[in-house]
């Protein structure tokens, strides 16, 4: 298992462009199964999860060309749905969350699919009820094989219906939308997730001939069509990478420009960073972060301590809280970080405490950070990356720390961040990848 060896305490400088969005890519790649025609996707991030999904789509019999690392052309003339029952499929799909969204297109086009336990970050319970109950309302029958931990889904022809989702699940909404576009009749999805990546999926499907209204809201109205045609689609910049680079700049007292950041699709993110006292300037489609020796966390208007919590879009993404938490360790002031959605995502704070941060983990969902205001530095240690975002948060901590740190299990960073060591070294970081 590879590790990163990091020599911290270096100031970084320069420009960095976020990769194409991981969580958009996973939805969009699944949607290529909805048509027999060619679909071209650009700005694809070269990361483990996305490459694994592209491999799986190829394993299913889809023709895949990759003329450049960031561009793929797919043609799903034929799909071997039975491959989903193989041990190979289960092993590979168990490595990422995104494979769960193969179900919507396959049940819509072939009336049959298998849905083994998906992988992805081990950050708490990640149930599939929203997906399965939604499919059921559209006429899908399901069996659950407890031993194989697999759903077997079958349907004659999906029928449009009214779906009130139990929660605005991102992948659940994507699955419902992809099933509904080819269903008989009209589907209404209420309490839908409406983040930019779901919006991008809907826009792509409309470009393929689907009829989806309400894009950007939590009420989607979909008129089913007979078939879809090919299209070209470009992925947005990865907003979680953008947030990670802002936190990195703040922690390492660096001046960084994040270029081509798709600034109109960041929701509350920049405002939330500003609540931590971070100065930043939007310049066209770029974000300039000046060198800041100190940043002061704002209190609420009534003087009480700031709480930052995750919330479905347009709230702050749960995927950003780990990097915001690490950034708070060197702020002036205190903040309560409340990770509402996932129950096992804050345990990495143990490592930050070992590095010298002042944090109280109140319970699995809440941590109070008392900023050091640079009166003492974090110290380098040996640690392991538990999940993508905690992994990158620890990397940021290590880059700001005094001395050497080792991060093990860096596959958990490579799943979501493209060549992060090379890209940050180009800004002046000292990260060595050890086999
Ligand atoms: C591949 C992909 O796109 N993964 C993202 C996707 O995962 P994913 O689609 O798996 O996440 P869901 O939106 O289904 O929900 C995530 C968790 O939050 C809980 N929940 C969700 C909505 C809600 O209103 N209340 C609530 O408590 C769910 O029960 C679940 O435990 O969305 C998550 C939430 O933004 C992100 O962290 C993941 O990076
Ligand atoms: C939780 C995440 O990913 P996944 O849903 O793919 O595990 C993430 O991107 O932070």
TrEMBL record:
<protein>
    <recommendedName>
        <fullName>UDP-N-acetylglucosamine 1-carboxyvinyltransferase</fullName>
        <ecNumber>2.5.1.7</ecNumber>
    </recommendedName>
</protein>
<dbReference type="GO" id="GO:0051301">
    <property type="term" value="P:cell division"/>
</dbReference>
<dbReference type="Pfam" id="PF00275">
    <property type="entry name" value="EPSP_synthase"/>
</dbReference>
<dbReference type="GO" id="GO:0008360">
    <property type="term" value="P:regulation of cell shape"/>
</dbReference>
<dbReference type="GO" id="GO:0009252">
    <property type="term" value="P:peptidoglycan biosynthetic process"/>
</dbReference>
<dbReference type="GO" id="GO:0005737">
    <property type="term" value="C:cytoplasm"/>
</dbReference>
<keyword id="KW-0133">Cell shape</keyword>
<dbReference type="InterPro" id="IPR050068">
    <property type="entry name" value="MurA_subfamily"/>
</dbReference>
<comment type="function">
    <text>Cell wall formation. Adds enolpyruvyl to UDP-N-acetylglucosamine.</text>
</comment>
<dbReference type="InterPro" id="IPR001986">
    <property type="entry name" value="Enolpyruvate_Tfrase_dom"/>
</dbReference>
<feature type="binding site">
    <location>
        <begin position="22"/>
        <end position="23"/>
    </location>
    <ligand>
        <name>phosphoenolpyruvate</name>
    </ligand>
</feature>
<dbReference type="InterPro" id="IPR013792">
    <property type="entry name" value="RNA3'P_cycl/enolpyr_Trfase_a/b"/>
</dbReference>
<keyword id="KW-0961">Cell wall biogenesis/degradation</keyword>
<feature type="binding site">
    <location>
        <position position="319"/>
    </location>
    <ligand>
        <name>UDP-N-acetyl-alpha-D-glucosamine</name>
    </ligand>
</feature>
<comment type="similarity">
    <text>Belongs to the EPSP synthase family. MurA subfamily.</text>
</comment>
<feature type="binding site">
    <location>
        <position position="341"/>
    </location>
    <ligand>
        <name>UDP-N-acetyl-alpha-D-glucosamine</name>
    </ligand>
</feature>
<comment type="pathway">
    <text>Cell wall biogenesis; peptidoglycan biosynthesis.</text>
</comment>
<keyword id="KW-0573">Peptidoglycan synthesis</keyword>
<dbReference type="InterPro" id="IPR036968">
    <property type="entry name" value="Enolpyruvate_Tfrase_sf"/>
</dbReference>
<feature type="domain" description="Enolpyruvate transferase">
    <location>
        <begin position="7"/>
        <end position="421"/>
    </location>
</feature>
<dbReference type="InterPro" id="IPR005750">
    <property type="entry name" value="UDP_GlcNAc_COvinyl_MurA"/>
</dbReference>
<keyword id="KW-0131">Cell cycle</keyword>
<keyword id="KW-0808">Transferase</keyword>
<feature type="active site" description="Proton donor">
    <location>
        <position position="121"/>
    </location>
</feature>
<keyword id="KW-0963">Cytoplasm</keyword>
<keyword id="KW-0132">Cell division</keyword>
<dbReference type="GO" id="GO:0019277">
    <property type="term" value="P:UDP-N-acetylgalactosamine biosynthetic process"/>
</dbReference>
<feature type="binding site">
    <location>
        <position position="97"/>
    </location>
    <ligand>
        <name>UDP-N-acetyl-alpha-D-glucosamine</name>
    </ligand>
</feature>
<dbReference type="GO" id="GO:0071555">
    <property type="term" value="P:cell wall organization"/>
</dbReference>
<dbReference type="GO" id="GO:0008760">
    <property type="term" value="F:UDP-N-acetylglucosamine 1-carboxyvinyltransferase activity"/>
</dbReference>
């Amino acid at each position: 298992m590879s590790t990163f060896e990091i020599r911290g305490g270096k100031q970084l400088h320069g420009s960095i462009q976020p990769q194409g969005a991981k969580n958009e890519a996973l939805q969009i790649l699944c949607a290529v199964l909805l048509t027999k025609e060619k679909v071209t996707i650009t700005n694809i991030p070269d990361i483990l999860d996305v490459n694994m999904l592209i491999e799986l789509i190829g394993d299913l019999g889809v023709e895949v060309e990759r003329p450049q690392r960031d561009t793929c052309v797919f043609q799903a003339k034929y799909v071997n749905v039975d491959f989903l029952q193989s041990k190979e499929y289960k092993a590979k799909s168990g490595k990422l969350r995104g494979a769960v969204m193969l179900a919507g297109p396959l049940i819509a086009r072939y009336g049959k699919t298998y849905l083994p336990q998906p992988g992805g970050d081990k950050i708490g319970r990640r149930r599939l009820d929203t997906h399965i109950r939604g499919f059921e309302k559209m006429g899908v029958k399901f069996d659950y094989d407890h031993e194989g931990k697999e759903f077997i889904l079958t349907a004659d022809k999906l029928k449009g219906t009214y779906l009130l989702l139990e929660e605005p699940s991102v992948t659940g909404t994507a699955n419902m939308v992809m099933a509904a576009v080819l269903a008989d009749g009209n589907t209404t999805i209420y309490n839908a997730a409406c983040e930019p990546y779901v919006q991008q999926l809907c826009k792509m499907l409309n470009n393929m001939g689907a009829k989806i209204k309400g894009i950007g809201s939590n009420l989607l109205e979909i008129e089913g069509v007979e078939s879809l045609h090919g299209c070209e689609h470009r992925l947005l910049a990865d907003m979680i990478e953008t947030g990670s680079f802002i936190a990195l700049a703040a922690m390492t007292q660096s001046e960084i420009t994040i270029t081509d950041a798709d600034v109109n699709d960041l929701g509350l993110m920049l405002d939330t960073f500003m609540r931590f006292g971070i100065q930043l300037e939007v310049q066209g489609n770029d974000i300039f972060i000046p060198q800041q020796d100190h940043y002061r966390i704002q209190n609420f208007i009534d003087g009480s301590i700031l709480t930052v919590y995750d919330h479905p879009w347009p709230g702050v993404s749960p995927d950003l809280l780990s990097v915001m938490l690490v950034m708070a360790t060197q702020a002036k002031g205190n903040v309560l970080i409340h990770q509402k959605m996932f129950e096992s995502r804050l345990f990495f704070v143990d490592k930050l405490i070992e590095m010298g941060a002042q944090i109280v983990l109140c319970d699995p969902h809440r941590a109070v950070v008392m900023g050091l205001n640079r009166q003492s530095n974090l110290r380098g240690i040996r640690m392991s990356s538990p999940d993508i975002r905690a992994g990158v948060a620890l990397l940021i901590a290590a880059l700001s720390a005094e001395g050497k740190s080792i991060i093990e299990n860096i596959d958990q960073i490579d799943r979501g961040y493209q060549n992060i060591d090379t890209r940050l070294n180009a800004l002046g970081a000292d990260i060595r990848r050890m086999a």
